[in-house]
Design brief:
heterotrimer, A alpha+beta, B mainly alpha, C mainly alpha, A: alpha+beta, D-Maltodextrin-Binding Protein, domain 2, 3-stranded antiparallel sheet, C: mainly alpha, MetI-like fold, membrane (chain B), transmembrane (chain B), MetI-like (chain B), MetI-like_sf (chain B)
Chain lengths: 432, 287, 292
């Protein structure tokens, strides 16, 4: 049994929002630090450490072992020590590495954790050391690691993912929902949820989650103002959406425990076949093959309802690396087109972060299986996917919004109040 | 609660035996309340997968007792490793207190030196601070020392407890002055007096401090929760909190985890309770 | 006392303890105060922002909830934990066969780790747990009572856990106090025809009044410092909607995370200190009196 849930790949692509909120505009810790630019023409030698996030498992270990062996063969006299951190608590782990000056030389970070690291001056500005960065990697990935008020780009885009809807066909059949005509709008989803509720006597469900910031973004609400100094997502449209969730909850279309703190989560209930709808990356069905093989034939994918969120992963280099030349070379090696393409060959349903791979037909042709279809769906959705673009939004903000929405869903306050409170809290937490 | 009467008529005797029976009944009732939940969890941890823990008519005794949950829980999270981490922290703190608090307590009690009153006052003053109020700054200090996410970082602030220094000072104060004087006449130096006169007289206090330190380290939660992040470094309480957050779907495993945290400490306590109760009367310990 | 040692010997003996004391108790106390005027975070920051954190405190709705919870906690726990352990101590005071075993059992909840017993209570109070399961089966209730998700029910569940865990601890404090009550007073009262309840109020309570005050203060302070029960029973978010939190809970939640707000958490710490100061000062005076 795996120790921890893999967060980055597979099961839940929860955006582990973390880091912290520094309103931009002011000078930040990062820009005041001396930034070295790295001479990449030097002969490489020595040892560096390389840290991944939740990727040391049966599925991916062979890929990394080979990747590192290849690099060490190309550059005799170099050694790469591979460390992997579990899915849970990665943000805390990285922050303790930074504060104890033990951040690995090359490290895999999502944009929000990278932002906290950048503010602490812990990452190397890659745009400075690698002039070709903008021609090599996709824009959406690069922009996730380029922060308002901070000069530079702080990671090579590595792999990109987005959400696809997944349905349990057993539950759909019970409720008489046509598999070729699945809900594409939120209202359609609620209508389908009512069917499931009525058909199963309230024993099974379609919906089982609270709305989050991505759902709010889906309604067209601007997360922040244009210069990134204030949160502004408390719009009427967003409130209306939360109101619909609250109505669905009150009508019994969701499990009661959705609101409680130890709720197991939509993903767990989907795997237990108590709920019929979940969202996850294009890799989901492939990952089910190892975890829940009996479920695989019952799952089909469809395009995301509402806006597709963009989840980026990047490879960063520590600003305090003792061997920056080697670290940079290895980071480029990991994110090279060939190596990224090979990686996504294992992690089906994601797309590489290189420009060359975007038009690669391998990622957009399906083998006809539901798993293959879902992977292609993920890849095809990606160009339209959008990231929050608010790295200031952190775990505390996210927790607070979640609590406020819970209160709105129990009817203790209006959706608008919930949003106002969350916006006010998030703004008060932004440092000046 | 009958009054002690010095009469012995049959009616009084009868009423007294009724009173005793009543006392036993009440004592048993409170004992059941005290230990019932723990026994119930113990039973849950021994129940096999075949037996429903949430049934409408749950039975206290497992029908097919099994130890499977105790190996299963270790497959889910390295709970025995967590327990080892807790022991590591406890041992560091016990050693630190036995050496550091004893030495400081002795100097404050038995040696004249300038500044003694001031230092004693410093130790006393920290007792007024609730630990939670200084925890943030302690955390920052630990992080700055580069000890964040390490067991040493968890153990360090409690390495020598002010309360233990004061307890030992009181214990050393209680040793009659004449013993020391006699030893001085015999030409014993300060280290010899410490070793051969003072230490043997405070063994009881040292035992209590050892027990309390162990319990404190074993049960501590908020501080290790702040300091530790890595899943391989967690102490038992943090690991248990994590376990119940992650595997809520199988109460048997959570129960097994809770038992791993409870049973050792309760056994140690049951064995050593005599020393313990003797010592607790000496001062209100534990905030 | 004759000086028989070199001047630095006592300093060598005191030094390790003094270093730990200064670095991990005195300095943090001073530093917390300073930090509360800055925007220091785990990884960054460090500018002085004046009273900014305190202004945020005043506007923090979660803190308001936390303070209300603290008041409820104190108001409910203090009487319960002042009287129940006293009754228990009276029960467990007079010699009786097997009493040592009872005392040990009563002390089990005190020794047990708060996390472990909170996990147990969570299991008992769960929507499908023992209590709800039994009550629905017996037909007392139709739907499960939401012990762990109701705004007030969760708080009272935590309070009952705190009371359960504290009984044995305060009982032991009373036991030593009861030993000092003159048994002849009881006899005299009995001769005057006072029943057990009268004797309790007129003899026992006055005899242990000092200890009752001490216990009440101790309970008050620990009720202000509550954390683990709420964290385990209500989860990391502090119940549904984050209403079931305490001051310590907020200190923990604002300081944790990838880049915790140590400045804000310090302001909360100062608030906690100010809250506990009156009872702690009483306690210090009290202890001095006892020493005299």
């Amino acid at each position: 049994m795996k120790l921890f849930k893999v967060a980055a790949l597979g099961s839940v692509a929860v955006v582990a929002l973390s880091g912290c909120g520094l309103g931009s505009g002011g000078s930040s810790a990062a820009s005041s630090k001396v930034q070295q630019s790295v001479d990449s023409s030097a002969k490489l030698s020595g040892t560096i450490s390389f840290q991944t996030w939740a990727l040391k498992n049966d599925k991916f270990t062979p890929y990394f072992t080979k990747l590192i062996a290849d690099f060490e063969k190309q550059h005799p006299g170099t050694t790469i020590n591979w460390i992997d951190q579990p899915g849970d608590g990665y943000a805390d782990k990285v922050s303790s590495e930074i504060s104890s000056n033990s951040l690995p030389d090359v490290v895999n970070l999502p944009p929000d954790i990278a932002y906290a690291a950048v503010k602490a001056g812990a990452l190397l500005n890659l745009a400075k050391s690698d002039p070709k960065i903008n021609q090599t990697y996709v824009k959406s990935g690069l922009s996730d690691y380029t922060y308002k008020g901070v000069d530079g780009t702080y990671a090579y885009p590595w792999y990109l993912g987005t959400d696809v809807s997944y349905w349990n066909t057993d539950i759909l059949k019970k409720a008489g929902i046509d598999q070729s005509n699945l809900p594409t709008t939120f209202d359609g989803l609620v209508a389908a949820a009512k069917k499931v509720h009525d058909a199963t006597g309230g024993k099974q469900f379609l919906m089982s989650r609270k709305p989050n910031l991505y759902d709010i973004m889906s309604t067209g609400a601007p997360i922040m103002n244009s210069d990134g100094t204030k949160f502004t997502f408390n719009t009427d449209a967003a409130a209306a959406m939360i109101g619909k969730y609250a109505d669905a909850y009150k009508a019994g279309y969701m499990p009661r425990e959705v609101l409680s703190s130890d709720y197991q989560g939509n993903d767990t209930l989907f795997k237990k076949q108590q709920v019929g709808w979940t969202t996850s990356t294009g890799y989901y069905i492939t990952s089910l093959k190892t975890d829940n093989p009996t479920l695989v034939p019952k799952v089909i994918g469809s395009p995301a309802i509402g806006l597709a969120p963009l989840y980026s992963q990047g490879i960063s280099v520590s600003a305090k690396s003792k061997n920056p030349a080697l670290a940079l070379a290895f980071a480029q090696f990991v994110t090279s087109n060939a190596n990224q393409t090979a990686f996504v060959g294992v992690a089906k349903g994601f797309l590489p972060g290189t420009q060359a791979a975007q038009s690669d037909p391998r990622f957009t042709t399906s083998d006809g299986t539901p798993a293959g279809n879902a992977a292609v769906l993920g890849a095809k959705t990606l160009p339209k996917a959008k990231s929050l673009g608010a790295p200031q939004w952190d775990q505390q903000d996210s927790d607070y919004l979640d609590q406020q929405i819970a209160l709105a869903m129990t009817g203790k306050q209006t959706p608008k109040q919930a949003l106002d409170n969350a916006v006010n809290k998030a703004n008060s937490l932004l440092s000046k | 609660m009958s009054a002690e009467q010095h009469t012995n008529t049959p009616s009084v005797r009868r009423s007294r035996s009724w009173a005793t029976a009543g006392r036993y009944f009440l004592l048993l009732l409170v004992a059941a309340i005290s230990v019932g939940p723990i026994l119930w969890e113990l039973s849950t941890s021994l129940k096999s997968k075949a037996e429903d823990v949430y049934s409408q008519t749950p039975s206290l005794l497992p029908q097919h007792p099994t130890l499977d949950n105790f190996s299963e829980v270790a497959r889910a999270v390295p709970i025995y490793h967590f327990a080892g981490n807790s022991v590591t922290v406890a041992v560091m703190q016990i050693v630190g207190n036995l050496l550091g608090a004893t030495a400081a307590g002795y100097a404050l009690a038995k040696l004249q030196f300038r500044g003694r009153k001031l230092i004693f006052g410093l130790f006393l003053s920290t007792l007024v601070l609730p630990a939670e109020a200084t925890i943030i700054s302690q955390f920052q200090t630990i992080v700055k020392l580069g000890l964040g996410d390490t067991l040493v970082g968890v153990a360090l602030p409690g390495l020598i407890g002010a309360i233990n220094v004061l307890l030992l000072r009181n214990a050393f104060m209680a040793i009659p002055e004449e013993l020391d004087q006699a030893a001085i006449v015999d030409g014993a130096n300060v280290w010899q007096r410490f070793r051969y006169i003072a230490l043997p007289n405070v063994v009881g206090t040292l035992a209590i401090i050892t027990i309390l330190t162990f319990i404190g380290a074993w049960d501590d939660f908020l501080w290790p929760l702040l300091v530790l992040q890595s899943p391989d470094k967690l102490t038992l309480t943090v690991g248990l909190a994590y376990l119940q957050g992650t595997f809520v779907n199988d109460p048997r495993l959570v129960a097994a985890g809770a038992m791993i945290a409870l049973v050792p400490i309760l056994v140690i306590f049951a064995v050593l309770q005599r020393y313990f109760f003797r010592g607790v009367g000496e001062g209100a310990i534990k905030g | 006392m004759v000086r028989t040692h070199r001047w630095f010997t006592p300093w060598i003996m005191v030094l390790p303890a003094l270093v730990i004391l200064c670095v991990f108790a005195l300095w943090p106390a001073v530093n917390t105060f300073f930090l509360s005027f800055t925007d220091v975070r785990t990884l960054s920051g460090g500018t002085i922002v004046g009273l900014d954190n305190y202004r945020k405190l005043v506007d923090d709705p979660q803190l308001r909830a936390a303070l209300v919870n603290t008041v409820v906690y104190v108001v409910v726990c203090v009487p319960l934990l002042t009287f129940l352990p006293l009754l228990l101590a009276i029960l467990a005071e007079k010699p009786l066969r097997g009493l040592a075993i009872f005392r040990t059992i009563f002390y089990f909840p005190v020794i047990a780790s708060a996390v472990a017993v909170a996990v147990i209570w969570k299991f008992l109070l769960d929507d499908r747990g023992l209590i709800n399961g039994w009550a629905t089966h017996a037909g007392i209730i139709q739907d499960a009572v939401p012990f762990l998700s109701g705004r007030w029910l969760l708080l009272f569940s935590a309070i009952s856990l705190t009371v359960w865990k504290g009984l044995g601890y305060y009982m032991v404090l009373y036991l030593s106090a009861l030993g000092n009550v003159d048994p002849q007073l009881h006899e005299a009262a009995a001769v005057d025809g006072a029943g057990p309840i009268r004797r309790f109020w007129s003899v026992t309570v006055p005899g242990v009044r000092r200890t009752m005050v001490l216990v009440a203060i101790l309970v008050m302070v620990s009720a202000m410092r509550i954390f683990t029960e709420l964290y385990i029973l209500g989860g990391k978010t502090g119940g549904v909607g984050g209403q079931d939190v305490s001051v310590v809970f907020l200190i923990q939640s604002s300081a944790s995370g990838a880049d915790g707000r140590l400045g804000y958490a310090s302001a909360l710490s100062v608030l906690l200190f100010v809250m506990t100061l009156p009872p702690m000062a009483l306690l210090a005076r009290f202890n001095r009196k006892v020493d005299e």
